[in-house]
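Continuing the series of single-chain predictions for the mutant panel. This is the parent chain; the variants come on the following pages.
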Amino acid sequence: MPSTRSSARPARLDSVVGRSFPNPFAVKYHNAILALAALAAAATAASRAAAQNPRSIGLIAPGAAQIPDSARKKHVTSFTGDLGFVSASGNTNVTTLTMGDRIVRTDGYWMFTQVGTYVSSETNNKQSANQLRVMGRIDYALMPRLSVFGGASYERNVFAGFTARTDEIAGLAWKAILAPRDSARLDAGGVLTQESEVDSTHQRYPSARAALHYKHQFSKLAYFNEFAEYLPNLQTSGSYRFNTESALVAPVSTHVGVKVAYGIRFDSRPQPTFGTTDRLLTTGIQVSY
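Parent structure:
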């Protein structure tokens, strides 16, 4: 949702509508992605070759053993849906709707993830928030704790200054913590962003990406989630995005729970007249299968 606005960001050569300019940072980004893909392919081939040679097991570092056959054959699909609605009338008329979903499919070495969120709000019959975000991601396990991933996301939020933003991500993911009640995953990689602004200009720029996913399980159905993501722009010095979300889920029944979430989306160089920070507090029902 909109907040106090900051100074305008400097213009970029490759953001002029209808024109394109050579971008050395974008070239470096693409080269890095190709190198990462080659490294992942080589690591996969090496790990499979090692798995076929019993004498090579002793050369594998502790914690980097091959994926068990039982895990390779495991097929699991999970679904989580969120729904929240607020309506107030009288001196102030407010209507807010929030929806979200998360689908995860694990199939041997592969894991497919789809996430979607939608927020719409009206105040005194005038729209005050409208945000849509969908994301898809594919992970391929190289080792029990290490995987390579790629994906893309689409976001629309005119109240933050852009009509469309597409992020294409790739990198490596490491499961830093695997405990009975706690788990943590670290992502490191890059992003290529295409952005259409409300003033009809366009931008295309590469960024680095570091992210943390943490989960604490209070019980089988009650848990706390924390997500943090840092994306420094590799093209414009001092420009970066920082996103967080904290969520707490308390069960009502086996498949239904109450969810409270608080998210922050920060852009150090927003469009002129737009603020740097959007905050969103949501509460609602969560359904899981």
